[in-house]
Specification:
This protein is mainly α. It has one domain. The protein is built from two helices and no strands.
Amino acid sequence: MGKTESRAVALLEKPLYTEVLNMIHESALRAKSRRQVEKRRLAAQRQRAHSADVDRTRRVKPASSENPWMTEYMRCYSARA
């Protein structure tokens, strides 16, 4: 192979190299966006779980000793039992 032939081959190979780089870049961008979507999905899931826990704690009835309508007699009776 002469110098001109090797130069022609090098010129032909160069666009292929940039195409490979572009493919790698596109793949990396897809992976990045996939990770971001997954991160957002997990954050929303975590937020839903947290808000469900907060709602559950609000719905729980207070202990009978904390009930303001409980009479003194009932309070003393339950303390003896």
